[in-house]
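[audit] Reproducing an earlier prediction to check determinism. Same input, same settings, fresh worker. If the tokens differ from the archived copy the diff job will pick it up downstream; this log only records the rerun itself.
[audit] input (349 residues):
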Amino acid sequence: MTDPSLRLPAEWEPQAAVLIAWPHAGTDWADRLASVETTYVTLAAAVTRFQRLIIVVGDAGLHAHVQSQLRDAGVDLSKVRFVELPYDDTWLRDSGPITLQGGGDADSQRYFQLTDFRFTGWGGKFGAEQDDALVAGLVDAGVFGHAAHKRIDWALEGGGIESDGEGSVLTTWRCLVQRHPGQSREEMSAILRKSLHADRVLWLDYGYLEGDDTDAHIDTLARFAPGERIVFQACSDVTDPHHDELQRMATELAALRTPDGRPYQLHPLPWPQPILDQGRRLAASYANYLIVNGAVLVPAYGDPADDEAARVIGMAHPGREIVQVPCRPLIWQNGSLHCITMQLPAGIA
């Protein structure tokens, strides 16, 4: 019997820690490992200013290497926990646990369910056997205390859904129909409502980024924010091939209503200039930011729009410090800051 009090918290609710997996020579980062490790060190330093960080490492050698890097960077290692487990790649937003929360307001009163959906390497594009076993490995390592572990044999990635913490889930049709081509929107909505204990599912039909191999994850496009706000990636350049699609997405967002029938307050993000890698356009999105306790970590791409994006995100998340994290190395592998992280709600770890 399902617990009716369980819900998917919003990212801006209190957190226990952020979970990441460190890149190494056995991952797809091998060709540019030094540059991406610089981003990971900067991320670790930023997160540990505000809360704990759990780092998955492949083996004892990588563990020692990462410890040395973080120590040299002045990171407070008392706020870091290492867990040695095998993994295919480092996109823990998609292979990590989607954690439901129930119980009271105090940490000691809360209980948790680690919802472990099937991870298929974004619809079979990449090998994912070790990543699909990651949540179970973290559970066996005792990372999550007494949290329940529920395996669901249905493909879903954490980057594919957004929660307002109050029963609304936002997602994209383009992504989920790729994962489940034989299912209707109504069937998928029912599965999402049941598995995430949600009241309703809001769908976007438009929105994509060139270079994105997630099939339009919502966390690259539009994000819930406190106070019935939505932050979204806009495109003001009429000559850019994204313009029409993102304009249509903006129209869809304007038509969405809160549970009591009001329009959301929309915060459009500026559009960065195209970033190319050997002629391939990379998926640079400012919507791919990470909320932590007391702050928002915002991707920066070395673009003139970086500061304006940080300002817009700060307006949508009042009272939080805004910290820019250089993320240009990340988009070489088609993701950004939110994609490599997974927050854990307060009380679980």
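[audit] rerun output stored. Observation attached for the diff report: The chain has a mean pLDDT of 96.
[audit] end
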